[in-house]
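Loading example: each entry is read as two labelled lines plus one structure line.
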Amino acid sequence: MQFEPRATRNDIVGRLHNSEAFNYGVETWEAYKRGGLSKDLVEEQKKVQEADLLIFQFPLFWFNMPAILKGWMDRVLVQGFAYDLSKAYDGGLLQGKLSLFSFTTGGTKEKYAIRGDIRYLLWPMQHGIMHFCGVKVLEPHICYAPAFVSEEKRKEMLTAWTQRLKTLWKEEPIDCSPDWYFK
Amino acid sequence: MQFEPRATRNDIVGRLHNSEAFNYGVETWEAYKRGGLSKDLVEEQKKVQEADLLIFQFPLFWFNMPAILKGWMDRVLVQGFAYDLSKAYDGGLLQGKLSLFSFTTGGTKEKYAIRGDIRYLLWPMQHGIMHFCGVKVLEPHICYAPAFVSEEKRKEMLTAWTQRLKTLWKEEPIDCSPDWYFK
């Protein structure tokens, strides 16, 4: 799937709310309300709406998700759909859903531990995106440096993930407060 | 400029190093060494090479840069050019350069202060990208909620930025340690 990551005027079908000064946030909000978002966004929002659990699987690029996935967040989670004026964090519009960030890294676990903690980089994605939309967050699933470990170790990683998926529904979400990330 | 944010096989011109199992990091590293990166990447790397100071100006999207800019980081800062096996952080290959993240937010300063500190979200971009490449980081420049303040306040923001630019070269880079971000 070659998802478009760039947030542009093309995300709005038809007339703009204010064609004098283009404001992406305002325009997608207005377009959402009148059913005027582009087809790819409507399709993705339908998937989110139907899901009880959102699993984001990706290779960590620069302490973050790759641009194509960041673009999914930028374009799909529009105001009116995922949050609203006074509906954010615990009151976010996607309440009742769970999320899980599952990713592979280039570096080893030790490399991330040298300078700070891997949890530091989870703040913008887990708290700034999912928590903001009212989605609860399960413990992240991190596979460190699969490209540099043995075939046996890679198989263990897959087995561990398979095992976790079996009991995922019984897990308690994390306490998404600054303490979890930084203390 | 409609920069392509997606990291794909198209970033490598000609034959792949390993066509059996595509690894984006390895392939762009090898392509860089043999001068086989796509034209748009070569052009951007040239700009970085010639710059003493990199200013990233953007609207904050989801506690982070928009996907189009994240894609610039993902695709331009390849191994061999920006960092190398044992050349990262203070030893990164872009040593001697300065950077500055300048951005506008949707929410007010108070909104960001309710849950944690705005500095928390600077860690992946400032530390995880720039510091990793050996680039020193100046204090971020943040304009809070320009869409919701008076015309007068907006003009003040522009004046403050103009003023800061005049003496930017005299500024000391921040101490890019976990303490700066989380204490």
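The first helix of chain B runs from residue 24 to 33.
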